[in-house]
């Protein structure tokens, strides 16, 4: 028994979109212990989809399709599956009602095109789509298992979690699971961390593997086990050892983001935060408020893109701006202090930098960023980062916001 | 004649890495006008690679492999290709010299493992790798064309550009290119737009195909031609027809984002913008400042997460807040007007809503968002959107910011 992931969409073949669905599903199949040997991509073409189904049925027993469930004529997945198996399509009343309701809740009317999304092969179960209009199917046919999902990643993921996983578990999968803890680090490079934990890379069970991306290093500690509890027992001693070795450079595991970790620390201490942003333009505030319930500790902020706003709303000194420039330690500190005072919070963060690609000089190159942190005790700290011009505007802004949160995290940890 | 992209690597099947090589090669094939109908991923397993080669040869005439060219025993690509065609492998002296030199320049000695990287099928040409130790091959065999590349994206890309493109052009490719314009729309659903342009979906040249994602609908108008100029001539009349049909719902093409389009309109008019954000928490400001040079028209903003900030910094009326609630048309309008006045800009945007998942009530459910737009003439408008609780916090925030920009865009267009 093995699964094959089949993504349908001419836009993938044209290179318009990155096929991230396959990676998500691959990870999920591994978690359930379902072997998976092949992935295929094919365009919106009936004959070619038929040929792909034929090949996949010869070598795989679980076929997982994504894409091609939309309302337009080029969306062919369900039709292609039904016609390959020479099965009649039947209209599902519940799907029609659901689509009608979704249109109504957005003040629109269901179009004639959408009726085709309610057609499913006779004998198949509906795999409901909470957010979009395209439901999938779960179909046991000729000893094979067929699942379809829309191509929109957020819809596919929710449907996978809510319905496909319970369904696959009911079929006996997921008894032996691959379980892992992804430990996450900031402020240390991949090779430095690797040197510190080198003795763990040769372990057979659990295994330890490093990953790096965008200023963050990760170590994945994995094992196979009958249950999550059993797996945790195998993983925990090694994960603990790594956390002790890494100290404050370890900031969280799995879904823990910096914003979540900082938010939890603020909540524990009953403290509040405000932010003053220049080069990040609101990105730090957006990161902080990405966390549900962040209004408990986040009061607000000032996007101080112009010098006037820095002076008028944050009390940055005109003299210091003229002498040191907007991108300087003293301005970052005054922004942090100013926003903390104006918003009456325990903590204030200031960020000022040159995101590029223009605006750099020899002494202040693109990628130079200053971060200020102000506390209720009246103390203020600043940090200088240089990300280099080659990182690009997006990464300079993203990494600045991350680093600001990381510096606050270290202050909160004491 | 059509190409198939075959990626070899168990790490892709485990979900450890995202298959970005396929997207890169897909775009490059489109540029050269090489049709491409299938992509396949398979693990490091000789039998399964053989079965993939067999299937690919039946349906494709150019096989492009990435991955599996390393020095370790699990790297099987070249060996699998040679054994499939029952062709002897021969040691290439130049490759050995090249690998030796690369090791020497790093102060190391070539390992025994690396000799295997110098083995290529008899009759194949070497596709040299400037940076890494893994060369590829270019092989014309049985009227098929076989190319192999390492899985490391930077090495693959350089080899593609330096050697594969000239080789493919020498075989007659690249004379005809696939060219397209991606038209982008907001404020209209995929099925409604499809109904309006339904008569264009059957065109043979150019072709028109719809895509939808996250509140945006796209129509791709594509053609094959000898040059970009010729392609534009074929595409333009249809693209123009669609733009006229869609009116202001069309906002831009290809890389045009809402933030870029709004920024360009503001620049043309010499006008400025400030934003006041509650539920988006800085996300709108981040979107606006994502555009290089946005300081020309963007002055800054207030992240007004708490009611106190709405009152103290933006002048929102305490009475209205108490009577109508923070998520109301009047508060959105006052936020827009308040931030415009305080920052002295031509335009002000206010956003207030319930991003969820908590905080919703029967009369004000999760996903309810009000947008206010204030202009220098003293006028102020507001818009009510309901995204539904099922969209999730991320999408409610993202779509609110997009819609705010879209409403401003429509005002700027008049």
From TrEMBL, chains A, B:
Upper classification of the organism: Bacteria, Bacillati, Cyanobacteriota, Cyanophyceae, Oscillatoriophycideae
Pfam family, one: MoCF_biosynth
InterPro entries: CinA, CinA-like_C, CinA_C, CinA_KH, Competence-induced_CinA, MoaB/Mog-like_dom_sf, MoaB/Mog_dom
Protein's recorded name: CinA-like protein
Biological source species: Cyanobacterium stanieri (strain ATCC 29140 / PCC 7202)
SUPFAM superfamilies referenced in this protein's UniProt entry, alphabetically: CinA-like, Molybdenum cofactor biosynthesis proteins
Residue intervals of the MoaB/Mog domain: 4-171
Domain of life of the organism encoding this protein: Bacteria
SMART domains, alphabetized: MoCF_biosynth (SM00852)
Family, as annotated: Belongs to the CinA family.
């Amino acid at each position: 028994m093995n699964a094959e992931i089949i993504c349908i969409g001419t836009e993938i073949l044209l290179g318009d979109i990155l096929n991230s669905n396959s990676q998500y599903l691959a990870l999920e199949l591994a978690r359930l212990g379902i072997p998976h040997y092949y992935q295929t991509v094919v365009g919106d073409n009936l004959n070619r989809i038929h040929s792909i189904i034929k090949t996949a049925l010869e070598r795989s027993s679980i076929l997982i399709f994504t894409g091609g469930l939309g309302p337009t004529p080029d969306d062919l997945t369900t039709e292609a599956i039904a016609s390959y198996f020479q099965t009649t399509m039947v209209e599902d009343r519940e799907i029609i009602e659901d689509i009608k309701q979704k249109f109504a809740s957005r003040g629109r009317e269901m179009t004639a095109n959408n009726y085709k999304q309610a057609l499913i092969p006779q004998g198949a179960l509906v795999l409901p789509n909470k957010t979009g209009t395209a439901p999938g199917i779960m179909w046991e046919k000729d000893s094979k298992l067929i699942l379809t999902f829309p191509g929109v990643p957020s819809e596919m993921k929710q449907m996978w979690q809510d319905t496909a996983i319970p369904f696959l578990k009911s079929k006996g999968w997921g008894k032996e699971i691959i379980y892992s803890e992804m430990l996450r680090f900031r402020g240390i490079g991949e090779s430095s961390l690797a040197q510190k934990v080198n003795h763990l890379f040769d372990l057979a069970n659990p295994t330890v593997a490093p990953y790096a991306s965008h200023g963050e290093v990760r170590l994945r500690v994995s094992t196979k086990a009958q249950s999550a509890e059993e797996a945790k027992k195998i993983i925990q001693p090694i994960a603990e050892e790594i956390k002790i070795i890494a100290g404050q450079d370890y900031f969280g595991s799995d879904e823990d983001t910096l914003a979540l970790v900082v938010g939890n620390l603020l909540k524990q201490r009953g403290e509040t935060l405000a932010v003053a942003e220049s080069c990040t333009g609101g990105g730090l505030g957006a990161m902080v408020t990405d966390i549900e319930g962040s209004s408990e500790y986040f009061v607000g902020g000032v996007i101080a893109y112009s010098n006037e706003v820095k002076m008028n709303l944050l009390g940055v000194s005109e003299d210091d701006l003229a002498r040191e420039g907007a991108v300087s330690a003293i301005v970052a500190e005054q922004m942090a202090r100013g926003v903390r005072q104006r918003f009456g919070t325990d903590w204030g963060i200031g960020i000022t930098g040159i995101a590029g690609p223009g605006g750099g000089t020899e002494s202040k190159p693109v990628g130079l960023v200053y971060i200020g942190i102000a506390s209720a005790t009246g103390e203020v700290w600043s940090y200088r980062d240089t990300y280099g011009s080659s990182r690009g505007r997006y990464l300079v802004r993203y990494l600045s916001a991350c680093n600001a949160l990381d510096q606050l995290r270290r202050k909160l940890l004491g």
